[in-house]
Specification:
Distance between the termini: 47 Å
Strand content: 35-45%
Helix content: 10-25%
Radius of gyration: 21 Å
Length: 97
């Protein structure tokens, strides 16, 4: 089964008004992410901070880009298996010197 990723925007009403010197709010607009494979699901959320120039759009874009960077060839529909490396094989590794 393929990995399923969901990125959503949600508005979470707060039980009471949240106040700090920079302002107040009664609702938190957040990005939520869930990643599922078979019977397992992981979840997370993020609140964008204006003072760091974050917006819902920027957080959503970064989340999507970050998740794509961690996809495997199998996730993208390529066959799984070892690929032949180009160039001379050699072994052993080791540093220059």
């Amino acid at each position: 089964m393929a990995i399923q990723v969901n990125i959503n925007r949600e508005s979470w009403p707060l039980e009471s008004e949240f106040r700090i010197s920079r302002g107040s709010r009664k609702v938190s607009d957040v990005i939520t992410v869930s990643i599922s494979e078979e019977k397992f699901t992981g979840r997370g959320e993020c609140f964008p901070y204006a003072r760091y120039n974050e917006t819902l759009d920027s957080v959503e874009t970064v989340s999507y880009t970050h998740l794509r960077a961690h996809e495997t060839r199998e996730d993208r529909g390529f066959p799984v298996g070892r690929e032949k490396k180009k160039g001379g094989g050699g072994g052993g590794g080791g540093g220059g010197g």
